[in-house]
Every structure is written in C-alpha cells, then in structure tokens.
Input
Amino acid sequence: MLLQWAARDNHPMRILLLGAGGQLATDLLATLTGDKLFPFTHGELDIADAATVRSRVLNMRPDAIINTAAFHRVDDCEDQPEQAFAVNAVGVYHLARAAAEIGAVLVHFSTDYVFDGIKGSPYVEADAPNPQSVYALSKRAGELIVQRCCQRYFLIRTCGLYGLANRRGKGTNFVETMLQLAAENKPIRVVTDQVLTPTSSADLARALNPLIHTDRFGLYHLTNTGQCSWFEFAQEIFRLARLSPALQPTTSEALARKARRPAYSVLDNANYRAAGFPEMRPWQQALADYLRQRGTSA
Output
C-alpha cells in the first residue's frame, strides 16, 4: 500500500530522549540515526521534577520528546502507588505541559495492561481500557494526560517488551530471566493462563522510526504479531537456545502475585496498518534474532 501522507520535512529532528540506558531507549538511539538525539537517564533528568523538566525543555527546544521512562515493576507498584503515579502520571504531565508549551511532539509509551483481558481477542485502539492494577491505573492516567494536554503526540501501547540493553542485569526482561534460571538449574514455573505477544524493543524502535516523522498523530498499538502464553514463550526460548530446564506450567492463582494481570492482552496494530505501514513480523522470528545476537541460539 502506498502511504497517503508525506513526512513533515526532510530535516533531522532534535529529539530529547528520556529513560536513556533502558532497553527501548538504547534501540531508539541505534535506530534514529538520521536525527539529533539528546539522551538523558533518570539520574540526569527526573521527569517527576517539574521545574527541571520545564527548564530543560525550554532551553533545548526539541522538535520531539520521546519518553521511555517508567516505573514498571508491576508488583512493586501495588506497594508503592505514590511512586508509580509520580513517574507514570505526574511525570508525564510535566512532559506533556512542556511539550505543548513549545509545540514539540510528545512520544509516550503505555502498556497492554490497561485492558482487563476479558475480551479474549486482540485489542484495537478503539477498545475501552479497564485497568486492574496500580501499575495499569498509573499508565492509563498517563495516557489520558497526554491526550488531554497535547495535540501533537504519538501514544504507543506495546506488550511483553524485551531488548539487549543491560541484559546481564538481574531480571532485565523475561527472556533473560528464563535463561538465568536455566543456567542456575533452578525449577521454573510459568503461567499458562496469561496470553500476550512478546515484542522485541529493536523491532518496536524500527516500526516507530517512520511513524514519528509523519503528522499521523494519535494512539497506536505496536507489537510483533502472533500470540502465546508466557509458558509457550518460555518453551520457545528454551527450544531456540537448545536448553532443557525443569520448566513446569502453573496458573496465575497458584503464583499469587500482588498485582492482577490480564488473562488476554494481545494488541492489534490496527491504526498502524491503517496509516499504510507494513505489519511487524511474528514474535518467533524476532525472538530468534534476539537470541542469535546475544550468542545463545545455534
């Protein structure tokens, strides 16, 4: 399909990138090579600090602000709701207000967890959210703030994200957690009753690149294609890595996590396709590439 729009211009954008050092931000730095990026880690720029955010944005006057900063430890959010909302909602408000003040585009990321999982078929952007945890509530609040405060924004929901950055850190993503547990010869229990689409942060960055250089502002779902349970995801990781750990299926009830997860949170990239972009590749192909790049698969 031919795209029915043109890029805003051919000049590189000045982009303020927040959450630098994380999985997605690292892949965005490697992907947005035609733009001038100014990356800031949490330690360098805390989005919960309103005065610092406004001062930095007004001084730099970027064309776009990409926010990958988030408090995303889902169970910890149940015990630390103030921190969850400080980062995922109030911090987003500071960015949205500053972006609107200078006319910058705001790119913000949200989550499949804003849905309750009852639908049982892929969620499109028009489906009504119904968050079921503190984390999901805080992320939904951030979405509403972006939509309320900004006219020029890309609000991106994604799912099951994993990437190579900082992969040697403990629990950096599900793939690394599984491989670490297998290396330690520990028994592994993974739920069969939560269905998602694992998504490569590198693939997400590549899909995002052409979109944010257009004026097709709005809400988008962006994930790899296909679906699986977390247990099936683990099985594919070990199959590709040629490992045979003690993997056992379990249920959400048996694990008894603090935060409630949606039983089904597969996202349909409907708006992205409608904008004329090709569908992202199947999650199995993206996972195979990830494992090859980290030197794990044969």
Notes: The two ends are 36 Å apart (CA to CA).
